[in-house]
Amino acid sequence: MRRRFLFNKDIEESLVITANEPSTVTFDVYALGTCEYNLNNTGWVKYTTTTYSLNTGETISFRGDLSTSSTAIDQGVGRFSIDGNVDLYGSPMYLLAGQFLKEGVFESLFAYCGIRNVSSTFLPATTLADSCYYSMFQGCTSLTTAPELPATTLEERCYYFMFRDCKSLTTAPELPATTLANHCYQHMFQNCTSLTVVPELPATTLSTGCYSNMFYGCTSLTTAPELPATTLSKYCYSNMFRGCSKLNYIKMLATDISASDCLFEWVYGVSSTGTFVKHPDMNSLPTGSSGIPSGWTVVNDGEESGGNLTFPVRLYEGSNNSNASEVISFFNDLKNSSERLQQTTFWDFSDILTLPEYYGVTDFANMVTDYKNVIHINDIYYTDRMYVYEGQPYIHYSRSPAEARSRCARLQLW
Q1: CA–CA separation, 136 and 118 (whole Å)
Q2: Are 319 and 356 in contact (CB under 8 A)?
Q3: pLDDT tens per residue across span 107-141
Q4: What is the pLDDT at residue 353?
Q5: How far apart are alpha carbons 93 and 65 in whole angstroms?
Q6: pTM above 0.85, yes or no
Q7: Rounded distance between C-alpha atoms, residue 150 and residue 126, angstroms
């Protein structure tokens, strides 16, 4: 299916590559049409396949009117070879000059290149095409900052292998789509061994293989994104967290797992202990690598804290005795402000005065909404949300509100 990206030809826009160290850049063009380059803003020149050397701080820009009607587009519009370390700006959409975003158009465009950062607006399309970003950054082992992915209309395999083997990537971009396509996120972050922050996965209606192998081999990941869908699809979670050796918290609310291989080996090789939150009506999940991980504690959704269960509360940076009384008062006020919290039994908060880690009971997942994101007490900024780190919930605090918010952004909401 063809999708149009709006392009203003009156504005000189391009794909810009900036060197962070001495680097070489080659662009092998596969598609028909014209392509131009601009080296260090010296003017636009017709491009022929050549390797260009950049010193630190130098740039080379590309733009084009590359046809997407050629059979060569089966290989993608072209492929860059970049040795060294560069940042990417602008957008590859300017290689198309307003042509259709078509199947496979950016397949492997930057695969195995020496890229460090990609600007947030690099991929602005909100409607995608089949396999359009297939393997786009695969093997970019220096990539630390990924572009935003605002698309809400997906097509088959649109993100397939997109960031596979990006071993320096720590934070995944948000994925706002609620309607999925077959295999859309399959293998997307496979072997991203530094990944610790993953996107929310809000879709409640799944498709064949949509999340298959998505986080396979993400060995730094400790907390899975919440999986709210109640009915699973064929292969949808197959191998999803396979090899995530530190993973110790999963919330998966499926009640219908009858689809073929929907949970095949999905938690093979995760942590030997952890917490698995399931739907209260789900009693047929098997134990093992294709179900609930062996050795994990099983909890019904809504019972993670409060009522019959308790969880530790820890100040992220350790105890701070100088403002302990204010912290105690703060949490007591929270308790009194919520009917749900009033049903929770709190332990003695005086422990905070002497212990760097103290234990209480928490239920901040349903905290009243009139609290701000960060609460200021005696020059300490506390977040009003409970987060999980390495399987334990934490209250985060800092000397600055920005840092407190940043700490929150890096961890998953409990």
Answers
A1: 12
A2: yes
A3: 999 999 999 999 988 999 999 999 999 999 999 99
A4: 24
A5: 10
A6: no
A7: 6
Pairwise CA distance, residues 343 & 303, whole Å = 12
Full DSSP string of 242-261: TT-TT--EEEB--SB--STT
Cβ-count burial 161-196 (b if 16+ within 10 Å, e if not): bbbbbbbebebbbebebeebbbbbbbbbbbbbbebb
Do 66 and 34 touch, CB atoms closer than 8 A?
Answer: yes
Residues 6+ apart with CB under 8 A from 316: 389, 394, 395, 396, 397, 407
Q: What is the 8-class DSSP label of residue 96?
A: T
Task: Tell me how far apart the alpha carbons of residues 404 and 398 are, in angstroms, rounded to a whole number.
Answer: 5
pLDDT per position as a tens digit, 371-406: 223 333 334 444 444 443 444 444 444 444 444 444
Contact 95, 77 (CB under 8 A): yes
Higher pLDDT: 245 or 75? It is 245
End-to-end CA distance of the chain: 39
Amino acid at position 220, single letter = S
**Distance in angstroms (rounded) separating the CA atoms of residues 383 and 393:** 13
DSSP H or E stretch at residue 335: helix 324-337
379, two tokens: 């020059």
56: tokens are 């630190």
Cα–Cα distance measured from residue 75 to residue 66, given in angstroms and rounded to the nearest whole number = 13
Measured CA to CA in angstroms, residue 399 lies from 144, 378, 404 at distances of 26, 10, 8
Residue 389 has what pLDDT? Answer: 40
